[in-house]
TrEMBL record, chain A:
<dbReference type="InterPro" id="IPR000194">
    <property type="entry name" value="ATPase_F1/V1/A1_a/bsu_nucl-bd"/>
</dbReference>
<dbReference type="GO" id="GO:1902600">
    <property type="term" value="P:proton transmembrane transport"/>
</dbReference>
<dbReference type="Pfam" id="PF22919">
    <property type="entry name" value="ATP-synt_VA_C"/>
</dbReference>
<protein>
    <recommendedName>
        <fullName>V-type ATP synthase subunit B</fullName>
    </recommendedName>
</protein>
<dbReference type="InterPro" id="IPR027417">
    <property type="entry name" value="P-loop_NTPase"/>
</dbReference>
<feature type="domain" description="ATP synthase A/B type C-terminal">
    <location>
        <begin position="346"/>
        <end position="435"/>
    </location>
</feature>
<dbReference type="GO" id="GO:0005524">
    <property type="term" value="F:ATP binding"/>
</dbReference>
<comment type="similarity">
    <text>Belongs to the ATPase alpha/beta chains family.</text>
</comment>
<keyword id="KW-0813">Transport</keyword>
Automatic annotation (TrEMBL), chain B:
<dbReference type="GO" id="GO:0046961">
    <property type="term" value="F:proton-transporting ATPase activity, rotational mechanism"/>
</dbReference>
<comment type="similarity">
    <text>Belongs to the ATPase alpha/beta chains family.</text>
</comment>
<dbReference type="Pfam" id="PF16886">
    <property type="entry name" value="ATP-synt_ab_Xtn"/>
</dbReference>
<dbReference type="InterPro" id="IPR004100">
    <property type="entry name" value="ATPase_F1/V1/A1_a/bsu_N"/>
</dbReference>
<dbReference type="Pfam" id="PF00006">
    <property type="entry name" value="ATP-synt_ab"/>
</dbReference>
<keyword id="KW-0066">ATP synthesis</keyword>
<dbReference type="InterPro" id="IPR020003">
    <property type="entry name" value="ATPase_a/bsu_AS"/>
</dbReference>
<dbReference type="InterPro" id="IPR024034">
    <property type="entry name" value="ATPase_F1/V1_b/a_C"/>
</dbReference>
<keyword id="KW-0375">Hydrogen ion transport</keyword>
Amino acid sequence: MATKAFQKIYTKISQITKATCSLKASGVGYDELAMVNGKLAQVVKIMGDEVTLQVFEGTEGIPTNAEVVFLGKSPTLKVSEQLAGRFFNAFGDPIDGGPEIEGQEVPIGGPSVNPVRRKQPSELIATGIAGIDLNNTLVSGQKIPFFADPDQPFNQVMANVALRAETDKIILGGMGMTNDDYLYFKNVFSNAGALDRIISFVNTTENPPVERLLIPDMALTAAEYFAVEHNQKVLVLLTDMTSYADALAIVSNRMDQIPSKDSMPGSLYSDLAKIYEKAVQFPAGGSITIIAVTTLSGGDITHAVPDNTGYITEGQLFLRRDSDIGKVIVDPFRSLSRLKQLVSGKKTRKDHPQVMNAAVRLYADAANAKTKMENGFDLTNYDERTLAFAKDYANQLLAIDVNLDTTEMLDVTWGLFSKYFKPEEVNIKKELVDEHWQKQ
Amino acid sequence: MATKGTVSGVIANMVTLTVDGPVAQNEICYILTGGDRLMAEVIKVVGSNVYVQVFESTRGLKVGAEAEFTGHMLEVTLGPGMLSKNYDGLQNDLDKMDGVFLKRGQYTYPLDKERKWHFIPLVKVGDEVGSSAWLGQVDENFQPLKIMVPFQLDGTYKVKSIVKEGEYGIEDTVVVLTDKDGKDIPVNMIQKWPVKKAMTNYKEKPRPYKLLETGVRVIDTVNPIVEGGTGFIPGPFGTGKTVLQHAISKQAEADIVIIAACGERANEVVEIFTEFPELVDPHTGRKLMERTIIIANTSNMPVAAREASVYTAMTIAEYYRAMGLKVLLMADSTSRWAQALREMSNRMEELPGPDAFPMDISAIISNFYGRAGYVHLNNGETGSITFIGTVSPAGGNLKEPVTENTKKVARCFYALEQERADRKRYPAVNPIDSYSKYLEYPEFEEYITKRINGEWIGKVNEIKTRLLRGKEIAEQINILGDDGVPVEYHVIFWKSELIDFVILQQDAFDEIDSVTPMERQEDILNMVIDICHTEFKFDTFLEVMDYFKKMINLCKQMNYAKYKSEQYEDFNKQLQELVAERSV
């Protein structure tokens, strides 16, 4: 970002911490950007003539006589069709060696949608993964995270979801992503020949952590451009939101704010909600769907980050390794899509809700049977059958390597019902049983 | 001369101003920046430095920007035309705003200045009237809305003139009053009231005692809430807080329902916008939206307006109560409001209380709940505000400041439980931890005994005891195994399961089961109590389970059937036959 002529240059920094520096300056606006010895910074506090700047790259090497120039604007992104297929850093600068983007410069982190102008989401997003499509159907305009431990293959699942979903644009916001994961996404997308509909904003672990704070707003500003101006269906992937929250904690700590639960800033709920609530179905047809990743520490969902996220998002998806089949599955008990009833049985076959519930109920019976077995109690014939069902169900449907359409998923489930149970054991409306029960 | 100020500091939405004249705590001012007028509220004064919280984004705000003080606190505009409106936390009419996105500094008038209302006088020239007395009424969505003496006026006044019955706009003078000194006071249909000040324009606030029917069995039968009562619903995410709140707001026997969506998901508000205009009020046959007002401050809207939103909602509720109406106010979620207070307290560098919440959080919560209640108005009529708030405890842990402080003031406690939600036992209200203090009120006992025509409280307490006993036995069975306890224990356990499945669990998405009128709840309770009092004969525990599963299935089929229909009676007959099979 070049500095303009006749700009006032300040050269006297009065205070420096790891992430911020302060100086005396006048005529500065809140949220405004500045360059401190060539490093990008943003105004986070003004008190009289003292201005505190958050330096995105960190303050390493900044001297007290550093040159500070205020840019007179908050962070912006240039938006146009040229964004498609490109890779950017947290500041919206290309990192793929391609040319600069030409387009309209818009401030990031723009205003909220008026709730009365929203439309109720109603379009199904098919992913081919039965643990999602069958049990926790996604709807465009929804916001939902994966709650996963760091060792789980959430990035692979997300990449699959992104490529299979019928969307016009996929926007990847990578925060604290390892370089290997970044290259993985790049590879998968280019191998699938989908690069032209993918836009990436990436902050890797090699980049300074505070820069991450810009990633979600950059990604969502681009998303709003395509959803509003071009009425496109946009899918935004944000990984990993826990890294984002960690960066928030670093900044609030440097600014001497009193931490609340788990050392997170007191404003964590609002900070996260501001991002997730950008998910929307516009009346004109465009939509923004957010699929995020929140990494957990040892599966603990009471930690402030997953806890606040759960209150904001419309459900959550849990991945779990199923030791019986040796594969990672989408956990049917702890996962939830709050919007699924808007589409399941309406946009899918009408037996969908009942089949889904019956299968999960039988899977729960199997879990009880397993506990019984482990405690040394005798198993009944029904218990044995539920255990056999559970194994097939996990293997053929819950596993993340499944790729079926919803009708096939329902037929496979009916097949399993018919193989292991009697019609009266599945508790499904008689007319549906008559229609779909498969003779053995 | 209005006081003016200049911006001297900005930290997020907290701004400090240097002022040139007097300012009041909670006074409203407008900060001028780049052509926008940003509304802000005074929260602290130190000498000539004034701290204000801005209800909008402060992006680009500079030191030296000017501010104008208004001389009044944050207030709402009250009058006919509020029903079925969608407001933001500051009572801006969201439907009147331009564009898809909310624009900074855009404020819209909450009422309709063009519309004419059919005014009917209720007083005549020469009548003596006091503050808040009813002067006339207009028809608002088929409900009478009273035009009252301005709430700010004290003492008595004489009616000097009043217009004839006819069509008038809200700004037309409909009545002229004269005070003791002979000064004329023109009155139109608009009232203004500062939101943070409780309206006390009633004679007395007795203990509430009338059941507020919600059609939700776990509330009406087990832990009833009363007209003018207070209750709260804490629960971890995914336990069905919103579904339960929506069910109550759809079904409750109230004249007016106000929903304050405070820092919650926008799509949930959209659900109300989409569904309520279609749904029919089971009590009046009119559209639900006609009796509803929505105050929406979704989680991405400015934080400071979140705090204002619950006060705005409460003040509108007080306005309708002063007309002698039954108002139900729902706030989802009060935790977001407390968090907004925490953010601000943090920016002001106040010493924090538990979990970094402000020290006075307890007083703030109790004052707010205190504004609800059942009142005798000065003219002998009654009105009520029933308040139900949800709480979103961090990590689902009920030992956190917002839950604990709310528990001190709310009289009903509906604890949503993760375990019940996981087992799909909805509504996931834990029957043992939850309570309603109103069950202990002798006034309530007298009322409900008359309403039901017989003994009630004793039966309710009996099922509660049975549920507790059932839980204890379930724990013993878990440790000792099915064979390790006597067969009678299994019978006691399954009787408690019967209560759970038939009374507590209710299908919010089923057309019939979702609403249970009080008469029907009485029948269900009697039926279940009768079965609980029956002695059964079993040889093994396996027989107990099979037998009670059949019984539960029949009772549930009855719940799904139309009341007293042929199908219902048929299931009932089968049930009685089944009971007779094994009763001793």
